[in-house]
Amino acid sequence: MLAKGVMWNLDGGLYYSYGSGGKQVNSIYDAKTNDLGQLMTTHTKLESGYYGSEGFLIGMKRADIGLHVATGLTFASHFRIGVRAHIGLKNVSKSTGLVNPSCHNISFAGTIGWQF
Predict the structure, then answer these.
(1) How many whole angstroms separate alpha carbon 39 and alpha carbon 28?
(2) Which residue among 6, 26, 29, 92 is least crowded, i.e. fewest CB within 10 A of its CB?
(3) What's the mean per-residue pLDDT of the chain?
(4) Predicted model pTM
């Protein structure tokens, strides 16, 4: 208890998540010189699914597991306010190329609520 009617909460543990949808947008720029010596540029925009599908270079696996860390305050035994973070331990990238990059999810959230 920090003060009368104020309690500090500290949470930790593991989390598991499963992605259900989303999209990724890739911007591809290309520049070359034509026969007259002029610089010619092109821009291509590629949209694809985020989870479970392979985009231009990389797709993401649906399942993830990692660390859950949270802290917050409880006022008058009911009103809660806090922050939490999920830090992914699993490499969720699914590459179609020769090199598989390392991608880990990190998410932050603020919470506010009423405890019954």
Answers:
(1) 16
(2) 29
(3) 87
(4) 0.70
pLDDT recorded at residue 22: 82
Give residue 18's Cα distance to chain centre: 12
DSSP letters, 81-105, are EEEEEEEE-S--EEESSSS------
Q: Which amino acid is at 9?
A: N
Q: Over the stretch 18-68, which tens digit does the pLDDT of each residue have?
A: 988 888 787 889 999 999 989 999 998 888 777 756 555 677 888 999 999
Enumerate the β-bridge partners of residue 25.
47
DSSP β-bridge partners for residue 96: none
How is residue 94 written in tokens? 């699914």
Q: What is the pLDDT of residue 100?
A: 74
Question: For residue 84, what are the contacts with CB-CB under 8 A and spacing of at least 6?
Answer: 11, 68, 69, 70, 71, 108, 109, 111
Backbone dihedral region of 52: left (phi > 0), alpha (psi from -120 to 50 degrees) or beta?
left
Round to whole Å and give the CA distance between 10 and 70.
6
Which tokens is 116 given? 């019954």
